[in-house]
Amino acid sequence: MTPPTMKALSKSQAQVGIWMTDQPVPTPGPNDLLIRVRKSSICGTDVHIYNWDAWASQTIPVPMVVGHEYMGVVEDMGSEVRGFSVGDRVSGEGHITCGHCRNCRAGRRHLCRNTLGVGVNRPGSFAEYLVIPAFNAFKIPDDIPDDVAAIFDPFGNAVHTALSFDLVGEDVLITGAGPIGIMAAAVARHVGARNVVITDVNDYRLDLARNMGATRAVNVAREDLWTVAQTELGMTEGFDVGLEMSGNGAAFNQMIKTMNHGGKIALLGIPSAGVSIDWNDVIFKGLIIKGIYGREMFETWYKMAALVQSGLDLTPIITHHYGIRDFQQGFDAMLSGQSGKVILNWEQ
Q1: What is residue 272's predicted lDDT score, i.e. its pLDDT?
Q2: In the chain, ranges of CATH 3.90.180.10 domains
Q3: Catalytic site residue 45?
Q4: GO cellular-component terms in the record (predicted)?
């Protein structure tokens, strides 16, 4: 008997692009879920893979199905799985951890040194079906729509970063108005920050940030950040919390310069090369700097659901929808820089 096949977007060649392919439907192991994917979202990581940049060429096995932002329904499950039923709406934690290292055994799975990424180190979710460990699946509450559930992975990056420090009543600087930075701005306002300032050089993305609740969106190619903070917002001492989302060395340096003494910085953006900073500012200001990778398992996921259920509206960040047959248009939208999150529908 011929094994069943499915449609999937694969990195089939070591060059720019992504291709629709036929792949075998994966079989769940005893502790796995088989998920029928309804909607996928395109991540910045997927754009790196599409462009086949230096990181992608050194990281991604070819050929492989890629993608890691999605929602779907449980189609089948292994014999040892408990707590799920066929038909459950789910998304999933894309970091598959080992379970036996010191951090895993201490409940700090987001710090697992042996992490494998869905769609990066193992087959991904740009497909009609995906298999992941049931441990990694997260049930989607009924009152959270499919589109929002499909972006829970990047939303989790924003939540983990933004909630690393107390934001209530604080002045927050976010450098980098990509979708994750914009969602972090929305989170910061929702949980009680006083001023939320976001910087970038992309006017389209800065407008999205304004719509999502940023107090002030600053195009640093035309405006001086600290002048805006002083003259428009009445700030005199500097920002209390910084969320670095850009991976841009100049943005990180500007953040350090404008932080208040005792300020706290969470770093999510990944620089493409080494970044030089003035460590005297870090030392004499007594700054605290924390690196962020992924989402806390699974505290971040519960906070994500609770934020949406308590009124945080993520829908403005979702700017484009395409049926899966038009996947190239979706990638073109992401590549243009004139988009927020792009959703691909596997049922169209």
Answers
A1: 84
A2: 5-151+314-345
A3: yes
A4: cytoplasm
